Request: fold
Amino acid sequence: MTPRAARRTAVVGWGIAGVVLLVVLWEGYKLLAPADGVLIGETRVLPRTTDLAMPHVWDMFGRLAEPVTRSPSAQPLWSVILLGALTTLGIAAAGWLVGVVVGVGLALVMQRWRLAEWGLLPWIVLSQTVPLIAFAPIVKSWGSRVEIGSFEWQDWMSVALIASYLAFFPIAIGALKGLQSPDRIHEELMRSYAAGYWATLVKLRFPAAVPYLLPALRLGAANAVIGAVVAEVSTGLQGGIGRLLIQFAGQASGDPAKAWGPIFGAVVLGLVAAGSVALLGVILKNYRRTEEAA
Amino acid sequence: MSAPETTTGATTVPGAVAPATAVQVTGVDKVFETQGGRVHALEGIDLTIAAGEFVSLIGPSGCGKSTLMRLIADLDGPTTGSIAVFGKTPTQARLDQEYGIAFQQAGLLPWRTVAANVALPLELHGVAPTARRTKVDELLEMVGLAEFADRYPDQLSGGMQQRVAIARSLAEQPRLLLMDEPFGALDEMTREKMQADLVRIAGETGAAVVFVTHSIPEAVFLSDRVVVMSPRPGRIREIVPMRLGGTAAAADAATGVAATAAARTARTEGLREDRSFFEMVTAVREALHGAPVAMGARGVETR
Reply:
């Protein structure tokens, strides 16, 4: 086995080991701990281990294959969750794209003008301290009043907008750092070639920014998913995984394993979003080289 | 571009007309405002470099040799005084791509192949892809890296990277090459090889070279004249013309570019063992240390 293949195997192995460890911990705790959980005085520091609070891992996954409701026409749970996850993924992707445009745009302005960096950066940081839940309903009510010609604001757009609000932050910061990253020697070289701002941007700054942009885009993707799920919950948008989370959690007293379905869906959603950006990294791998001799 | 094809000086008529001036530095001062106060980097610099001439700037750290090169390259402006590059302002010369430049670090773009790195200046100036490819092949052939065209910089040794950088600096066929300690980071063996290559390349292209170094043998081996500088404030202490081997008598910068170019191509590895080489090393060393001169005629700045 080549060292490269060995490393890949190791990565996969550790990944599987992590998941197995989680299952062992879950089931081990459920087996050994008291049914009422662990209490210190009146405070419960570890959860109950009843099937209601902690269903078996196999029950949770088994439930995915069963129909959503007892109605004869009901679809299996997994397909409902898949549909919800895809809906949310689409909204998150739209939010992510808006976040990329806004984030990179802000970074360009801040890179070009030092004064803009001083003026904008504190506000960008401050923007992230506003709790998402607080303004989600406001965005929705503003959105419902937007009507330009034949264009009518849809509720999913509010959710995408909120997702973009979370996504743009790491992208703006990462892009700024990346655009500022070229060595002095490279900047002077471009100057000696009489290359203007745009030529320098395209030939030097953007390529040099790739190693900084990729983690930022991945973080932005994860943020967009979280933003979309939370915004679905707080604006009450139907069809996405956020709505399913709330709906099935309400049914947990009668069907505890069902509530875990959308949680798994949300985890997979995050992985798919981050993985898509990792794919982008593979395509752009030549931009992640460094000059130092290997 | 209409860069004259002065290959090994054959097209210039020796002694008939004064050769074109590549660089004219007149009364230049450079003061940097730093937090620690004003730093006088250069003071009263007068220097004329003829077309096709190879001039080294040598001196201890802080003598302003790199600063002087950066002023010629228009990477910085003089505080007072004036600089002309082929009769133009440095800014105009930069916009017209009159010079090629190489630094101590190769400064290759890591995401571009060797060929794409050399092609970068051509690409920026709108040279058509086919013409670009021809030119790049030719340049890589010249620096002996033709078979490495598709490699990435991180796959090359430091010496090879530096050769790519030199090929890149020659891409626009400049009449002037500015080099800031380009071999400073290389080991001695690679360094001597690169020096021989540079002498050959400069001879082939007929370009004037301003070469910043702090190695005395390097300056002597390469140059027609060595400009010795002293620090704080940066001044030209002495300009020592190199009289090496048999062609020494004719090698006078102001009148005989043809002769100097010929002398330059005659610079082979054997020269490093030549008596005149050691005499010139001694002359430059004494100029650097400010000791009285024991031998050889001293050059006077020609302006």
In short: The two ends of chain A are 22 Å apart (CA to CA).
